[in-house]
Amino acid sequence: MATKLLELEDVHTYYGDSHVIQGLSIYVNKGEAVSILGRNGVGKTTTLRTIAGLTPLRRGTVRIGGKDTGHWPTHRIVKETHVAYVPAERNVFPGLSVKENLKIGEQPPMNGSSGSRWTLDMVYEYFPILKERHLQDGSTLSGGEQQMLVIGRALMGNPEIMLLDEPSQGLAPIVVAKVAEIVKQLCALHGLTLVVVEQNFRVSYKLAQRHYLMDLKGQIKRSLTNEEWAANEDIVKKHLSIDDGCVEKKDSECRQVPAPSEAPSGAAPGGPGAVSK
Ligand SMILES: Nc1ncnc2c1ncn2[C@@H]1O[C@H](COP(=O)(O)OP(=O)(O)OP(=O)(O)O)[C@@H](O)[C@H]1O
Ligand SMILES: [Mg+2]
Residue 57: exposed, middle, or buried by beta-carbon count in 10 A (0-12, 13-18, 19+)? Predict the structure, then answer.
């Protein structure tokens, strides 16, 4: 039977008096990749921040690996549950080389972990450009390279769960496809559990097997498996494109992951629109 690695129950989060997450309940099984899809401002980033202990939980429960982490400080969550949060703004440390940025993420694997034991060389194998640039100031890398760097830095902490916020943000379509392909491989080959937040629904479909459709205030409208999504693509499109009738516009905006015919080798055709899976 599947083990729940991450579980949120009736979570409530505030910014000051603003009650931004109101009763969120979701779960992620060990080894599963799950996406959270929703329009701007519904609370996706706040959800990840709450899991990582960066935005305080006011009410409800967050459990990671069976531990009640809801009120733990971030450093304890990282150390004892090996959650790696990769924020949309990336937060590469300026003034530090690529290699130093990676080394800063180093943490020994969790006791009893069945996951991979990450080294610099392994990260460089996935992201050869980081090896080429290892002496360069991390903050001078391109957007795509910085995204690779922060994913690599997260891997150096031997994560059990990776929380990935908008990995495609600001990246060219070809780079988005490359990053998505690598993250997909990481999950498949290293048993990484993933929670990804994306506005680019094709990336979400590619990376995750299950998807939560989030509405304002962190309300979950429904969850869908990839099979359900493939059979009901309109549900996802309507969910993301609100009622301003811009389904077509949204679709074209989201065409950042190439169609199967254009996709990197190994990607099989199938699924919504032109998503490679
Ligand atoms: N530091 C903050 N102080 C006050 N309100 C905030 C803060 N951060 C976010 N909010 C508000 O909380 C709500 C949820 O924000 P959040 O960033 O989680 O949304 P999101 O779904 O990630 O949106 P986006 O798709 O634009 O990234 C929004 O109404 C936002 O304005
Ligand atoms: Mg966000």
Answer: buried
